[in-house]
From TrEMBL:
<keyword id="KW-0560">Oxidoreductase</keyword>
<feature type="domain" description="NADPH-dependent FMN reductase-like">
    <location>
        <begin position="6"/>
        <end position="155"/>
    </location>
</feature>
<protein>
    <submittedName>
        <fullName>FMN reductase</fullName>
    </submittedName>
</protein>
<dbReference type="InterPro" id="IPR023932">
    <property type="entry name" value="CE1759_FMN_reduct"/>
</dbReference>
<keyword id="KW-0288">FMN</keyword>
<dbReference type="GO" id="GO:0016491">
    <property type="term" value="F:oxidoreductase activity"/>
</dbReference>
<dbReference type="InterPro" id="IPR029039">
    <property type="entry name" value="Flavoprotein-like_sf"/>
</dbReference>
<keyword id="KW-0285">Flavoprotein</keyword>
<dbReference type="InterPro" id="IPR051814">
    <property type="entry name" value="NAD(P)H-dep_FMN_reductase"/>
</dbReference>
<feature type="region of interest" description="Disordered">
    <location>
        <begin position="178"/>
        <end position="213"/>
    </location>
</feature>
<dbReference type="InterPro" id="IPR005025">
    <property type="entry name" value="FMN_Rdtase-like_dom"/>
</dbReference>
<dbReference type="Pfam" id="PF03358">
    <property type="entry name" value="FMN_red"/>
</dbReference>
Length: 213
């Protein structure tokens, strides 16, 4: 069996938290899917509420302290990532965003990520597509196609969330099992060619454009 590591980031503020509950369900389903593929996963859960002050200190000092740095290391070194945020004011929480603000540049490049959210109404489900997914795309993460949103009514029946959770977990497990993450975002550590832009090749660096003419 191949050893795999999953990091689970929960941005819930209360205890108990529906955000953590959804994170646990996604984690359990992802572990089951990886084991079915012949992998041996271990899980590291990060409760951001426990590190709120450390994150604020990192923002103003530019450095992670001895408590926060191991958390950042566990997330950036994981083979796969599950991130779950509550939806506040129509978007991800400030605590959730702060965590990604302090990560090293390109730390999530090429990393398989499953995104999920909880909210007080199903109307907030689109926040995953117009807020969370663009954030992860900006960070160059390999976000799985299925994102999972849980509204209050989804907790009423034990089976309400299961199809979405299992589908998203299977997609994450497929990416994790088929990808060996490298810091530069390539599967095997080889250099990544810049994307081509249009029929005439890549776009020259901006500094080069400024030097022309």
């Amino acid at each position: 069996m191949t050893a795999r590591t999953l990091a689970v980031v929960s941005a819930g503020l209360s205890t108990p938290s529906s955000t953590r509950l959804l994170a646990d369900r996604l984690s359990a389903a992802s572990v089951a899917a990886l084991r079915s593929a012949g992998d041996d996963p271990t899980v590291q859960v990060v409760e951001l509420r426990d590190h709120a002050r450390n994150l604020a200190d990192n923002l103003v000092t530019g450095f992670a302290d001895g408590t926060l740095q191991p958390v950042i290391d566990s997330v950036t070194s994981a083979d796969g990532l599950i991130v779950v945020t509550p939806v506040f004011s129509g978007s991800y929480s400030g605590l959730f965003k702060t965590f990604f603000d302090v990560l090293p540049r390109d730390a999530l490049a090429g990393k398989p990520v499953l995104a999920a959210a909880t909210g007080g109404t199903a109307r907030h489900s689109l926040a995953l597509d117009y807020a969370v997914r663009p954030l992860l795309t900006h960070l160059r993460a390999a976000t799985v196609p299925t994102a999972v949103f849980a509204a209050p009514e989804d907790w009423a029946g034990a089976e309400a969330l299961r199809p979405r959770v299992e589908r998203a977990a299977a997609e994450l497990a497929g990416l994790v099992a088929g990808t060996r993450h490298a810091p530069d975002g390539s599967p095997d550590g080889s250099p990544v060619d810049p994307p081509l832009d249009g029929p005439f090749g890549g776009t020259p660096p901006f500094a080069q454009l400024l030097g022309q003419g």
